[in-house]
Amino acid sequence: MEEEINIPENVEVRKEGGVLFVKGKLGEISKRLSHPKVKIEVSDNVVKVFSDLETRKSKRLINTFVSHIKSLFKGIQEGYTYKLKIVYTHFPTNVKLEGDKIIIENFIGERSPRITKKLPGVEIKIDKKDITVSGPDLQAVSQTAANLERVTRIVGKDKRIFQDGIYITEKGK
Question: What is the C-alpha separation between 161 and 36, in angstroms, rounded?
C-alpha cells in the first residue's frame, strides 16, 4: 500500500524523526506525522507514504497523512484565511490584539474582558466589525478562529434573543 505526492516547485520538504518540515514562500511549518504502521520517505520531488500492511486501518492512515501533507503544501504556497464578524445589539464590543492575546471588552456589557490566545504563525487584522485570521498553517488558523468564536459563546440565555458574539462567516483561501 503506497501513495506518492509530488512536491510543488519552490517548496522544500525534509523529514527529521517523525516531523515533516515544509518550507515555501510563506515561511516554514512543521507537522508531526508518525505512526508505527506508516512510513514516510522524502526523495527528490516526491513524498512517499507507505505501509507494509494491507489493512483498512493502514489505508485510512495513509490517506490521512496524504491529506495533511497536501494541506501543508497548499498552506505554504497560498495560505489560509478565515473571516469573522463581530455581532452586537446594545453594547458595542471592542476587540484588541496585545501580543499573542486577543482581548474582547464590553461583551454584552460585562465589566471584565474575555481573553483568548492567538496561535503562533497566525496573523490577525481587526477592522471595526470584521476580523481576518490568516496564516500558512490550516490548523493554527482554524483553531484561532474557533477560539474567538468559543470565547464569546453565551451560556444560560435564550440564543434567539442574545445573538451577540464573534462568528466565522467565511473560510478559505
Answer: 51
Model pTM score: 0.86
Instruction: Report the alpha-carbon distance of residue 123 to residue 72 in Å, rounded.
Output: 17
Query: What is the set of domains in the chain, with CATH numbers?
Result: 2-77 (3.90.930.12), 80-172 (3.90.930.12)
Nearest C-alpha neighbor of 34 from the set 17, 51, 21? 17
Residue ranges of the chain with pLDDT lower than 50?
A: none
- What angle do helix axes 138-151 and 56-77 make, rounded to 10 degrees? 90
Q: Which three cell numbers stand for residue 29?
A: 511549518
Asked whether the CA dihedral 8, 9, 14, 20 is positive or negative, the reply is negative
Q: How many whole angstroms separate alpha carbon 149 and alpha carbon 142?
A: 11
